[in-house]
Structure formats: structure tokens, C-alpha cells
Amino acid sequence: MANLIERFVFPIIRLTNKVGLFILFMMMLLTVADVIGRYFFNFPIAGTFELTEVMLSLLVFFSIAYTQIHKGHIALISLLHGYHQRKGQ
């Protein structure tokens, strides 16, 4: 059963992670273009804030499975690590 999951599900997870990385790159380009347009040309891109919100939510959901299979919840681990050190003293 585990081999079946590795063969079929993991490639889908890797694909969704790559889509998430592409969304992150596009979000970065959109933000940079908006800042340049706003401060140098006095012409911001309309709807940048809303597009960034949508792209961020898509990024989270496209990348969460990849994070889970690699056990990459770094922020939670570092938060709990500090808590356990203080509790044990």
C-alpha cells in the first residue's frame, strides 16, 4: 500500500508544489511591478492587493501537502522547542 501511495500520490504532490512555487514567483513579480509602477511612474497596478491575497491562499494550499510529507513545520517546532526548555527549568 505504501508503495502504491509513493508511486501515484507523491508525483501529484510534487506537481502541486511546483505550481505553488510558480504562484509564489508570480506573486513576487506582481508586487515588484506594482512597487516600481507606483513609486517611479505614479501608475500602480489595479487590484494588486486582491490578487496577492488570492495567490497567497492558493500558495498555501498547493504547498501544504509537500510540507507535510517532508515534515517541514519549522515555525511550530521552534515555537514548541522554546516552550519545552522554559517548562523544564
Can you offer a commentary on this structure?
The protein is an all-alpha fold. It has one domain. The chain contains three helices and no strands. Helix 1 packs antiparallel against helix 2. The longest helix is centred in the first third of the chain and has 39 residues. The protein is elongated. It starts with a helix and ends with a helix.
Keywords:
single chain; 89 residues; mainly alpha; 85% helix; elongated
Overall number of strands: 0
Query: Total number of helical segments?
Result: 3
Residue share in helix: over 70%
Strand content: under 5%
N-end to C-end Cα span: 44 Å
Question: What is the helix/strand order?
Answer: HHH
Rg from alpha-carbon coordinates: 19 Å
Quick check: average pLDDT?
84
SSE blueprint:
Blueprint: H1 2-40, H2 48-69, H3 74-88
Question: Quick gist of this model?
Answer:
The chain has 89 residues and is mostly helical. 85% of the residues lie in helices and 0% in strands.
